[in-house]
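Re: beginner question about structure tokens

> Can someone show what the tokenized structure looks like for a real chain? I only ever see the sequence side.

Sure, here's an example I had lying around. Input first:
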Amino acid sequence: MFLWASVLKKHLKVHAKKKPHTCHLCDKSFSRLQNLKVHQKIHAAVEKYMCFECEKTFSSATRLKLHERIHTGEKPYKCSHCDKRFSQSIHLKTHIRIHTGEKPYKCSHCYKRFRKSGDLKTHETIHTGEKLYKCSHCDKRFSQLSNLKKHKRIHTGEKPYKCSHCDKTFNQSTNLKTHERIHTREKLYKCSH
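And the corresponding structure tokens:
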């Protein structure tokens, strides 16, 4: 018995077959994010293999070798459907789902399905209201990583969207599109009178 419905909901995940939280170091999956965080401390304590290219450390020589493919560009895993190549077998496995239509991750709230556990996790924040991504500059929180990235440009001053007509720059693509109408004279709004 539980005093709070929210505690029961968390507890029920222990019994659920779905485990949307996957460790990026060893691919072990967990039903709760907190359990994943505890598990990841195991890796943090034993990372002793260092990449000489970027100084990132790993718990095993195998994990280091997988990482080094980022720098070498080696992609030994090839999709038999479209010839696209991948540096890790897990990335190929996820990619193949595009061709097969397989969506093994199901939302427990609305039953929408996803190819990747990360996509499910992001989607579920719509239902839970959970804001996993925190701005390091002002502590504002976001439910989607893309929204955090857009927000951070306020602090950094980054303006990656450049007008091809006058070289003016913008921090969001929507602002660039609105601005470019000055040059193209595109008028989207028509008076009905």
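Each token stands for a local structural state, so reading them left to right follows the chain. The mean pLDDT is 84.
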